[in-house]
Amino acid sequence: MPDFDVAIIGAGAAGLSVAAISAGLGLKVALFERGEMGGDCLNFGCVPSKALLAAAHAAAEARRAARFGVKLPPPQIDWAGVRAHVAGAIAAIAPNDSVERFTGMGVTVVQAMARFTARDALEAAGRRFTFRRAVIAAGSAAIVPPIPGLSDVPFLTNETLFALPEKPGHLLVLGGGPIGLEMAQAHARLGCRVTVVEGAAIAGREDPECVAPLRAALEADGVTLREGAKVAAVEREGDGIALLLADGARIAGTHLLVAVGRAARVAGLGLEAADIAHSPRGIATDLALRSVSNRRVWAAGDIADPAGLGPRAFTHVCSQHAGIIARAMLFRLPAKLSYDALPRVTYTDPEIAQIGPTEAELRATGRVDLAITRWPLSENDRLVAEGRAEGLVKLVADGKGRLLGASLAGPGVGNMAGMFALMIGQRMKLSALAGAVLPYPTAQEAGKRAAGDFYAPRLLSAPVKRAVGLLKHLP
Ligand SMILES: Cc1cc2nc3c(=O)[nH]c(=O)nc-3n(C[C@H](O)[C@H](O)[C@H](O)COP(=O)(O)OP(=O)(O)OC[C@H]3O[C@@H](n4cnc5c(N)ncnc54)[C@H](O)[C@@H]3O)c2cc1C
Ligand SMILES: NC(=O)c1ccc[n+]([C@@H]2O[C@H](COP(=O)([O-])OP(=O)(O)OC[C@H]3O[C@@H](n4cnc5c(N)ncnc54)[C@H](O)[C@@H]3O)[C@@H](O)[C@H]2O)c1
């Protein structure tokens, strides 16, 4: 008999979710973690980055309080205090992901590196563990691009940035994706000079209409944006670092953050010994997240590379994956992963939220029946009252009004993402939102107004007007 029903490699968001469900259902579970319990999200990702952004946004709010007639002196940034806040946020959440909590659930937590030695066996801490099923949830790590000189300078990644004791004087950020932009704005608002060097366009996956207000805000925060810039080499400059661009420009800073994407942590897992098909993108799985080559094995979280969909690096995707695995692996029910209604939020100010596909992604599939409605946040009473009426809600529906995608930009718009994820997931029409009674004044009303705009041309059409004209004669 195998030692464990389920062996899970990695105690990040994905592994912990699978472990909690499996142990809760009474299975014998082993969880292997070679580093920090909680993985990237808790220790080097979502939690520290959002904690740092909260401090940064507080400083920005203090700076712009004058718009309310509230005059404050320029904020003083106590870097040690900011770091203490970040560490405090991690410490407050850590018990949820701790060895103690999972041991209490009946999970055997092995704090060691695990690697497969056979199709049904692992080795960790010098011991062999056999399993009925295994889940690989080993996550992803920052890509380090092969730029000449980069490996000779002390660059930062998300794994080292939040442990930096000193405040960067001039932070160079390589990559203008969500990590680069969130950290650029956080540091700029906390008083650092920041330059983002982006090979293509910042926030390149997002709808360009949403990126425009963010670009303006970053520039207003003092962030220098170098888009379409190719870094040809990196070298030391005094105590700092210089980026040499292909166009001959030289940008010197005190620190360099590398944020050019993520690579699946497939090395060192012994995947060949267990016949587990993989590529640098991750573990090749079907849409039930089951390995295409070893049917005892599933993959979850950043390391999963489901056929036709590809990897996604979000904590809520880890939970989604755990749900699919519970259905398919534990209940043996049909399960099929879909990202049709997947939300994502970049927590800059303004935030960018995308739910489901963008207009460009839908057009790329050849769809021609798209109806687009927009509502500018300058027309939203709540945001006007708060002096922050910037950004937009843009909805993309099919010709019958069924919502396919939503692109939002504006202060706090991420809080609206759930509403649109539900609508897309439940295949709801815009009429549901247009007809909903939402509390006044809230930013959500912009969504309702955008939805209403889909019907306005039909409602105010000549035939409808003629009908109302006739109806008025009824007693
Ligand atoms: C800076 C930053 C900010 C982010 N912000 C957000 C956000 O706001 N919202 C959001 O949804 N997502 C965010 N993400 C993405 C999110 O953090 C990841 O999608 C999520 O943490 C991935 O979880 P995971 O369980 O797949 O992997 P991980 O969290 O990486 O966990 C994998 C674990 O496996 C362990 N491991 C690896 N190999 C082995 C082995 N052989 N043996 C034993 N253990 C092993 C690792 O030590 C690690 O702890 C952010 C990421 C970063 C980097
Ligand atoms: N708020 C969130 O939910 C959140 C926050 C941070 C990270 N994440 C997750 O982590 C993932 C990784 O984030 P990321 O920002 O590292 O990666 P990314 O792939 O999203 O963006 C990387 C950016 O770097 C650019 N780039 C690539 N090579 C370059 C080079 N050599 N020089 C200059 N620019 C280069 C790309 O054009 C791209 O714009 C995200 O896609 C997301 O899934 C989510």
UniProtKB/TrEMBL annotation:
<feature type="transmembrane region" description="Helical">
    <location>
        <begin position="6"/>
        <end position="27"/>
    </location>
</feature>
<keyword id="KW-0812">Transmembrane</keyword>
<keyword id="KW-0274">FAD</keyword>
<dbReference type="Pfam" id="PF02852">
    <property type="entry name" value="Pyr_redox_dim"/>
</dbReference>
<protein>
    <submittedName>
        <fullName>FAD-dependent oxidoreductase</fullName>
    </submittedName>
</protein>
<dbReference type="InterPro" id="IPR036188">
    <property type="entry name" value="FAD/NAD-bd_sf"/>
</dbReference>
<dbReference type="InterPro" id="IPR001100">
    <property type="entry name" value="Pyr_nuc-diS_OxRdtase"/>
</dbReference>
<dbReference type="Pfam" id="PF07992">
    <property type="entry name" value="Pyr_redox_2"/>
</dbReference>
<keyword id="KW-1133">Transmembrane helix</keyword>
<dbReference type="InterPro" id="IPR004099">
    <property type="entry name" value="Pyr_nucl-diS_OxRdtase_dimer"/>
</dbReference>
<keyword id="KW-0472">Membrane</keyword>
<comment type="similarity">
    <text>Belongs to the class-I pyridine nucleotide-disulfide oxidoreductase family.</text>
</comment>
<keyword id="KW-0285">Flavoprotein</keyword>
<dbReference type="InterPro" id="IPR012999">
    <property type="entry name" value="Pyr_OxRdtase_I_AS"/>
</dbReference>
<keyword id="KW-1015">Disulfide bond</keyword>
<keyword id="KW-0521">NADP</keyword>
<dbReference type="InterPro" id="IPR016156">
    <property type="entry name" value="FAD/NAD-linked_Rdtase_dimer_sf"/>
</dbReference>
<feature type="domain" description="Pyridine nucleotide-disulphide oxidoreductase dimerisation">
    <location>
        <begin position="343"/>
        <end position="450"/>
    </location>
</feature>
<feature type="domain" description="FAD/NAD(P)-binding">
    <location>
        <begin position="4"/>
        <end position="308"/>
    </location>
</feature>
<dbReference type="InterPro" id="IPR023753">
    <property type="entry name" value="FAD/NAD-binding_dom"/>
</dbReference>
<keyword id="KW-0676">Redox-active center</keyword>
<keyword id="KW-0560">Oxidoreductase</keyword>
